Amino acid sequence: MKRIPLVATLSLVAVAVTALPSLAQRYREIIQDSPIVEVRGETADTTKLGSDRYVEDNIDYLLANNEWLAVNFSTYWCPDSRAFRPFYDSAAAMPNYHGIRWAYADIDGTVGNETFRKRFGLPGIPVVILFHKGETIMAADSARSVLDGHEGDKVMADLLAMLDRFYKPDSAK
Fold first, then answer.
1. pLDDT tens sequence across 101-157
2. Is the pLDDT of residue 28 over 60?
3. How far apart are CA 148 and CA 166, in angstroms?
4. Structural domains in the chain?
């Protein structure tokens, strides 16, 4: 076996490290390139740490960097979340909603998510919230751009009705 001198090995590592973008930058690139962002604990900015720091941090990044953002708050173990996911995926692929950035926030709904649940007023999961410029949208009748599916009763028509009511791509809110 041929041995590489330590100095040469360290030089190769130094070149590789300086040639690669930072992990945070790579994460941001992944977010930009993904049709639906899967928020599962990675973080691009650790300056806003709370008890739910990983999911919150990603949501903060997405809210700050997208005019329109739809977030499906759900989890892998919930039957209602799994049943609703195909509707969400289908809506994300529709051309009339191309200006919306789509994301899944995978939260487990346990005690560790209390701050997160309070922040967004989540009664359960799944819940879809449409944000415009980082805020939920309030209609004249006080309805919010929130689709609460935690009873397992929401279908594609409910999601499309919420999107059609609140998504106005040319609005200047």
1. 999 888 765 544 566 677 888 888 899 999 999 999 999 898 999 999 878 889 999
2. yes
3. 15
4. 21-166 (3.40.30.10)
Specify the amino acid at residue 94: M
Tokens 């130094």 belong to which residue? 14
Prediction pTM value: 0.76
* Cβ(125)–Cβ(88) below 8 Å: no
For the segment 29-35, the average pLDDT, to the nearest whole number, is: 75
Three-class SS string for the chain?
CCCCCHHHHHHHHHHHHHHCCCHHHHHHHHHHHCCEEEECCCCCCCCCCCCCHHHHHHHHHHHHHCCEEEEEEECCCCHHHHHHHHHHHHHHCCHHHCCCEEEEEECCCCHHHHHHHHHHCCCCCCEEEEEECCEECECCCCCECEEECCCCCCCHHHHHHHHHHHCCCCCCC
* Residue type at position 84: F
Residue 67's identity, in one-letter code, is E
